[in-house]
Amino acid sequence: MTILNDLYSLEGDVAIVTGAGRGIGEGIAKTYARAGAAVVCAARRTKEIERVAGEIRDEGGQAIAVTTDVTDEAAVNAMADAAIDSFGSLDIWVNNAGGSPIQTPLAELPREEWDATVALNLTAIWNCCSVASRRMNDGGRIVNISSLAAEMIIPGSGHYAAAKSGCNVLTRTFATELGPRIRVNGIMPGMVPTEIAMQAMKLKDEDLPNLEKMLNLPAGRLGTPEDLGAAALFLASPGAAWITGQVIRVTGGP
Fold first, then answer.
1. Does pTM top 0.85 for this prediction?
2. Nearest residue to 16 (alpha-carbon basis) of 40, 46, 33, 36
């Protein structure tokens, strides 16, 4: 049992999780804290990340909330400084902030929406990985949250899919360029009914049972933030020490 605990322990690690105020980011932040990491919960909505950090502390974990817009380079650097100033190091960085609430055919997509989607889902990933690489010691780990959209044709979501495809390439390239000092991996989640996913797909809670039947996933259900937290824990843990440059599907099925 001790060996298993050691393989999946983050004891002594300091982790930044962006987009940590809700959904998948909240699931990852809480899973990391329960595994022993001190967690910096980052997002634009201060009230949400303060709630998550407070709930982690109430469970006996260590966490702070740092209001951050990941598309702002100065804010990203300040977030890294806050992690090191508060906890003494920076070991894990999860790039989870992302998404697009808009579904529009590419030829009709407003330029400002294209630019905003690329800035959040691609450029911010590049910048955050670059900042992380300069602040981490040997043994650092980066986990990028991508999307199944990166490998699919989804009419109306081409802008988001293109950015997430780029995220996958960044993940593999950073892994090659930063190894062996830092491991870089990614996750492509399947259908997890987060707020932004529901908004983009124009779904309501009462629509989820029908969506579950339509998808007919081998796992028998839709995903949860905790499912993604478990996958992100594995990729950041000593148990994944020989895994880098991979973007894994966590989808409830093939």
1. yes
2. 40
pLDDT digits (tens, 9 = 90+) for 5-59: 889 999 999 999 999 999 999 999 999 999 999 999 999 999 999 999 999 999 9
User: Which segments of the chain does DSSP mark as H helices, in order?
Assistant: 2-7, 23-34, 46-58, 73-87, 111-118, 124-135, 158-178, 195-200, 208-215, 225-236
Helices (H), 119-242: 124-135, 158-178, 195-200, 208-215, 225-236
Q: What are phi and psi of 132, to 5 degrees?
A: -60, -40
SS3 of residue 67 by DSSP:
strand
Q: How is residue 158 written in tokens?
A: 């081409």
pLDDT at 89: 97
Task: Tell whether the torsion through CA atoms of 112, 116, 122 and 126 is positive or negative.
Answer: positive
Q: What is the rounded CA–CA span in Å between residue 150 and residue 1?
A: 38
CA dihedral over 238, 243, 245, 247, signed as positive or negative? negative
Q: Say what angle helices 158-178 and 111-118 make with each other, to 10 degrees.
A: 30
Catalytic residue among 160, 171, 191, 192: 160
Classify residue 123 by its DSSP letter: I
pLDDT of 227 over the 70 cut: yes
3 state DSSP class of 7: helix
> Is there a catalytic annotation at residue 32?
no
Phi, psi angle pair for 46, to nearest 5°: -60, -45
Q: What torsion, rounded to 10 degrees, do the Cα atoms 202, 103, 93, 180 define?
A: 130
Cβ–Cβ under 8 Å, residues 137 and 152: no
